[in-house]
Amino acid sequence: MDILKEKILTEGIALSETVLKVDNFLNHQVDPSLMHEIGREFQNRFEEKGITKILTLESSGIAPSVMAGLLMGVPVIFARKRQSLTLTDGLLTSEVYSYTKQEINKVCVAHKFIGEDDTVLIIDDFLANGKAAEALIHLADQAGAEIAGIGIVIEKAFQEGGSALREKGYHVESLARIANLEAGKIEFVKEKEHSNADV
Amino acid sequence: MDILKEKILTEGIALSETVLKVDNFLNHQVDPSLMHEIGREFQNRFEEKGITKILTLESSGIAPSVMAGLLMGVPVIFARKRQSLTLTDGLLTSEVYSYTKQEINKVCVAHKFIGEDDTVLIIDDFLANGKAAEALIHLADQAGAEIAGIGIVIEKAFQEGGSALREKGYHVESLARIANLEAGKIEFVKEKEHSNADV
Prior knowledge:
The structure is a homodimer. By secondary structure, chain A is of the alpha/beta class. The first copy, chain A, has one domain (2-188): Rossmann fold. Chain A has helices at 2-11, 32-46, 62-72, 131-142, 161-167; strands at residues 13-14, 20-21, 29-30, 53-57, 76-79, 91-98, 103-110, 119-127, 146-156, 172-180, 187-188. In chain A, a hairpin with a 6-residue loop joins strand 10 and strand 11. In chain A, helix 2 packs across helix 3 (62-72). Chain A is globular, with a radius of gyration of 16 Å. Chains A, B: 5-phospho-alpha-D-ribose 1-diphosphate binds at residues 128-132.
């Protein structure tokens, strides 16, 4: 997705060989118009799948997910990392280790929002070691829902999460795939999978 | 805002005299199309104000804010409740007590995203005792930004936050104002402030 890659190149910062800072437009300051384009791209890539719900994780997954949900006409559920007084009944839970926050988060969704009749699209901002995606898969599996695919804004393709999920048979679509972040330079994976994918 | 009030009446649950559960469409499962209408309503109410940035708080403020930001053509910044490894430099911080989570959260924004030249619209999902709004005001004040107004999806008008903010001179616009939640019944404040306000 060209405009996303352009944005990453001009505003992203390779903080280290594993950490890409995109707080200018994705996970602290948010560019709503870019999120809308990202939502449209997810719509294009998954529209044949009969999606009934989008499942994401608070907080950075919410903006791209609600735009995708708006365009696809389906509700978005964001899994919670912490329990609230008003979120109590029939919880499905899983656990995820956050590398950037260095802690284990219990994540949960209310069971009433995902069921056996649902075809779920999982969306997240980043895919690196795949732990967050696995937790979301675990939540959807517990609900008996079908997982139609996993839509990722930025995949760190030099980490194992993406290939592990694809090997398990999941349909993973990442809008920008980073090949490496060495020497402060951001390099994308060269690929021609989609008509709108670029180098 | 009629469709929001209708949604609150049909899908909201008065858990107690102070707690309104709206996890069906606002703060766990999200209705993207309703969020878009909410964004449009904020746009209508604040479009004359020369807004340059929307400031909100993760996580439930994000969905209505990105829709408002999309329609108003301005970036959204969501204040973080927990610090990330990638969010380190030049932080403005404040504190907010969350009644529904019963804890004090340190909230922060990167200074580089809000400055003296900004005219900020603060958006949040709920206004009750006003602590979250005050923390966001405190963040914007530290940045030297002008605060154009405060847009709230649901105000618990029986709590003191809204009147305290209005007494201080802030322009507060709440799309649904709850008069009381007694006996499990949701009652709105009767008002005719806006052409689209209803009983």
